[in-house]
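Possible regression after last week's pipeline update?

I re-ran a chain I had predicted before the update to compare outputs. Posting the input and the new output here so someone can diff against the archived version. Not blocking, just want to make sure nothing changed silently.
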Amino acid sequence: MPDRDAVTVDTRKQFADGDVTRGRKLEGQWWGDGGAYVVTSFARAADSPVPHDGQVWFHDPERSTLTLKVRFGVNPTPDVDGAFDGPDNITVSPWGGLVLAEDGEGVQHLIGVSGSGETFPLARNEVDTNEFTGPVYSHDKRVLFANLQSPGTMFAITGPWRRQG
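New output (post-update):
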């Protein structure tokens, strides 16, 4: 943000439409890596100059910055594996990167996100169409817990986990 205090120009007027993204609502958030990760839901052309299927932002309180880490493009075929949509709950992996619970249309996953923003599937819900929720690692970092929202099934996922390169 060139003039974040809006001394000379209103904040909303400091960027062109193609430089701005919006989300319909806040989803998950997690404190890690010295700041707060915040997940926003999707936006369409009527909502945002840059349509998307979700975003992950990082707020660094020491630097007073908010940085876009991941933007999920609009998924044209949500019933097919490949692109992801609808990031929701989030946790920071003790092995580097993030874990997101997908709450989009169609196929539901736990999504891994590398430090460079690359996404990959960690787990796929083969039980039903309910979303994954609440990913969190055990204190000893050996187990990733995640739930299916309904009927309230909890999974304990063991590694082997490894630090990302």
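Follow-up from reviewer: compared with the archived run. The first strand starts at residue 26 and ends at 32. Marking as no regression found.
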